Amino acid sequence: MEVKVKKQILDRYEKSSDGSLIIDVAARRVEDLYENFDKSAPYHRKDLDGDLVAYITGCVREIGQRDFVVRFSIEHQLSLELMAMVRDGMHAFFMYQKELEYIAMKKMVRTSSFLLVTGILILGVSLRVNHLLALSGEVSFLNRFFAEGLTIVAWVSIWEGLATFLLNWAPYLFRTRLFQRIALAPVLFRFAGEQAESVS
């Protein structure tokens, strides 16, 4: 059943002559591919439109490890220079997204490591305090409360460190690889009136 569903998903995509899946993006103008807030920036430095980014990343998640190309279908012919700028912009934007994910992942690892090390140190102090209290033979309520509190804080810190790392590293790594795949994908263009690229 799962294989059948996967085939149905992949059948929604055209294929290029070399068998790569085509992620098709239709736009009236090349400007429609970009955010509107920075109209003065050159195309290779502009941020891509948020809906476009969500669409492309969603398609790449959907097709899995299959090879793919991104094809922009534009109404008006573009110059070779402008097509090169769009390609460079795609590469730069998704490599930037990859770097942001990598930085966030490193920050998460640092936070997890800090919590884990802190928890281990506090646990060591807690064990030492409990040992000294046991040797004294006379333990007040406040001393016992302090010692038990240290133990609880230690285990909470250790658990937070482990949970943060175990739950978050895989999604960060997945998104990093996802953005790199998109950044390195070939970018094709098709214009109104042109014949579609041969498909299989």
Describe the structure concisely for a colleague.
The protein contains four helices and four strands; from the N terminus they run αββαβααβ. By secondary structure, it is an alpha/beta fold. A hairpin with a 5-residue loop joins strand 1 and strand 2 (21-27).
SSE inventory with pairings:
Layout: H1 2-10, E1 14-15, E2 21-27, H2 50-63, E3 68-74, H3 80-136, H4 141-184, E4 187-191
Parallel strand pairs: 2-3, 3-4
Antiparallel strand pairs: 1-2
Helix pairs in contact: 3-4
Counted by DSSP, the helix tally is 4
Radius of gyration: 27 Å
Mean pLDDT: 86
The general outline is elongated
Major β-sheet annotation: 4 strands, mixed
How do the SSEs run, as a string of H and E?
Answer: HEEHEHHE
SS strand fraction? 5-15%
Number of extended strands: 4
Uncertain residue ranges: 196-200
For this structure, the quaternary state is single chain
Task: Give the CA-CA distance, first to last residue.
Answer: 24 Å
Structural class, by secondary structure, is alpha/beta
The percent range for helix content is: 55-70%
Largest sheet strand order: 1-2-3-4
Essential attributes:
four-stranded mixed beta sheet, disordered C terminus, single chain, 200 residues, alpha/beta
Q: Could you walk me through the main structural features you see in this protein, from its secondary elements to its overall organization?
A:
The chain is built from four helices and four strands. The two termini are 24 Å apart. Strand 1 (14-15) and strand 2 form a beta hairpin. Mean pLDDT is 86; it is low at 196-200. A four-stranded mixed beta sheet has the order 1-2-3-4, with helices on one face. Helix 3 (80-136) packs antiparallel against helix 4 (141-184). By secondary structure, the chain is an alpha/beta fold. The chain has helices spanning 2-10, 50-63, 80-136, 141-184; strands spanning 14-15, 21-27, 68-74, 187-191.
